[in-house]
Fold:
Amino acid sequence: THESMWKRTSSPVGISWFLGEYRGTVMVGHSGGDTGYATDLAMLPEKKIAVVWMMNSDWRGSGGLTRAALDVALGLEPQPIQP
Structure:
């Protein structure tokens, strides 16, 4: 079932999953939020790496947080996160 959900169609979205690439490897993820909270889940299936975070905040610069966490998981030096 997950193969069908992670299969790219005419857009970069599978069935509720955003499909892309991070540092040369396939990335599958989903983010969301509403007033007062934000979440993100990013997976690099080929590397067996997943990052998930949840926060009580309206801060929308959180893509940097995901990239920094993925870099740490990959053994790389993360870029500073800009507020």
About this structure: Residues 63-73 form the longest helix (11 residues). Residues 5 and 15 are 5 Å apart (CA to CA).
